[in-house]
Amino acid sequence: MADAITPEQWRNFFKALALSGNVSAACEAGKISRMTAYRYKNTDRFIAERWQEAIDVAGDKLEDAAWTRAVEGVIVCEEPIMYYGKEVGRKITRKYSDGLLNTLLAANRPEKFRPVVNVHVNWRAELEAAGFDPQELFNQLVAQAEQRLLAANDEVIELDATDITASIRSDGA
Questions:
Q1: Which of 4, 43, 129, 133 has the most neighbouring CB atoms within 10 Å?
Q2: What pLDDT, on the 0 to 100 scale, is given for residue 106?
Q3: CA count, 13 A, side-chain hemisphere, 40
Q4: Per mean pLDDT, which of 46-50, 111-115, 116-120, 168-172 is the most reliable?
Q5: What secondary structure, in 3-state letters, does the chain show?
Q6: Partners of 112 in the beta sheet?
């Protein structure tokens, strides 16, 4: 490549990337332009692997910080405890992040803590409200599937309901 980068520049780049997860900061630390760094990442497997390792290290640090805030809390206030004019201890007030705790639980125990959303849609009513005949739409989807199956010969088939809805609209309009 035209822009030769020294091993020291790469060391500085990857060290900064692992510390911050920020490519711009890493480029500045390594004295490498962003365009050049990305060109190397996209064409040099070794650089791409080191890049991902550095991003993973930065991600682990973020996860550690989230864990600390969620589980251990962050000290928001520290006051002396006084007894007859002498400090006998300190009162520490911590703030915890329930949002981060929920996120960590969902990530680490998704089977138990992942949010479950059930959506029930009355498609017949929705289609009718939009001016479609649900039975006609179903019949056209089946016909389209049959045509594509006959023409496919073991190819992957994609059904496109937008084509059908457009043809129904133009027929009914």
A1: 133
A2: 85
A3: 22
A4: 46-50
A5: CCCCCCHHHHHHHHHHHHHHCCHHHHHHHHCCCHHHHHHHHHHCHHHHHHHHHHHHHHHHHHHHHHHHHHHHCEEEEEEEEEECCEEEEEEEEEECCHHHHHHHHHHHCHHHHCCCCCCCCCHHHHHHHCCCCHHHHHHHHHHHHHHHHHHHCCCCCCCCHHHHHHHHHHHHC
A6: none
